[in-house]
Amino acid sequence: MKLQISCQLDYEAYSSTPLILMLRPRSNAGQWIIKEEYVLEPSVPITEYTDIYGNLCQRILSPVGKFTVFTSSIVQTADFIDVAPGAEFVLIEDLPAEELIYLLPSRYCESDKMGNLAFQIVGNAYPGYDQVELIRRWIHNNIRYQYGFSTVSTSAQDTAFAKIGVCRDFSHLGIALCRSLSIPARMVVGYLHELYPMDLHAWFEAFVGGRWYTFDATQPYPKGNRVVLAYGRDAADVALATQFGNIFLLGMQVNVSVAEEVNA
């Protein structure tokens, strides 16, 4: 399916402020960028680099006053995500070196403290994909999705205790539980078609059977038509906007819809 995605950030800055943004998707095996637009109002210089996780990052020095960032893309997405019941656990010694970082505890994913819960959830399941799916299902069935309870400092351990949160919290918990079983897991942020209420979304991926697979504990079944913006260890690595000064976000608008036919 071709999706039209857009995100608008409206700021007010009381001093010229450095910003790092992650708002540009990049083409990969699961998505192809057909057309994109990136508008700054007022216009200011912008530079781009690729971070250590492969994400496209934009550097901006905001002007003083009102400032708007608008991005829009038409993306060819996969209608279904791959599933692989029975895909095997990858031995640590056989993991690609670049995936080892996703085994370690991180700021919001205290995997070194969650082993007991993880083993309770997976029981005698076959190591690998089947364990991750049991974790995803347990989170979906046992953690209540609700805005306004968690904060930017809520961790996986906090969510496991409170049993309430939003997509970011669901993802952190899934990641921490997977890592406690020595399964590499990473956070993903992006867009999901027909998400309600519409917003930017977060889910997680686990490395089993020699590749990454998508898991989304907010959804009752595997769902495609996703657009990835960024990957990282947890939310600290995938912030869509990081600011270094006296600037305030006035509002954010996110839209995802089926794209009209375009001339490539």
Compact summary:
The protein is an alpha+beta fold and 264 residues long. It is 16% helix and 37% strand. The two termini are 15 Å apart.
Topology:
Elements (H helix, E strand, L loop, with lengths): L1 E12 L4 E4 L9 E11 L4 E5 L5 E6 L3 E13 L37 H8 L6 H14 L1 E2 L10 H7 L1 E2 L1 H14 L4 E8 L8 E8 L2 E5 L10 E7 L8 E3 L3 E12 L6
Parallel strand pairs: 7-8
Antiparallel strand pairs: 1-6, 1-14, 2-5, 2-13, 3-6, 4-5, 9-10, 9-12, 10-11
Helix pairs in contact: 2-4, 3-4
The third-level CATH topology of the largest domain is C8orf32 fold
CATH class of the largest domain: Alpha Beta
Percent in strands = 35-45%
Structural class: alpha+beta
Shape: globular
Q: Figure out the total of helices.
A: 4
Q: Segments where pLDDT lies below 50 for 5+ residues?
A: none
- Our Rg estimate from Cα atoms comes to 19 Å
Distance between the termini: 15 Å
Order of helices and strands: EEEEEEHHEHEHEEEEEE
> What is the annotated CATH architecture of the largest domain?
Roll
Tell me about the biggest sheet?
A: 4 strands, antiparallel
- How many structural domains does the protein architecture include? 2
Explain this structure to me?
The protein has a 4-stranded antiparallel beta sheet with strand order 3-6-1-14, with no helix packed on it. It has a 4-stranded antiparallel beta sheet with strand order 4-5-2-13, with no helix packed on it. A 4-stranded antiparallel beta sheet has the order 11-10-9-12, with helices on one face. The longest helix has 14 residues, at 129-142. The mean pLDDT is 96. The protein has helices at residues 115-122, 129-142, 156-162, 167-180, and strands at residues 2-13, 18-21, 31-41, 46-50, 56-61, 65-77, 144-145, 164-165, 185-192, 201-208, 211-215, 226-232, 241-243, 247-258. The protein has 4 helices and 14 strands. Helix 2 (129-142) runs antiparallel to helix 4 (167-180) and helix 3 packs across helix 4. It has 264 residues and is an alpha+beta fold. The chain folds into 2 domains: 2-78 and 240-258, Immunoglobulin-like; 92-221, C8orf32 fold (Roll), CATH 3.10.620.30.
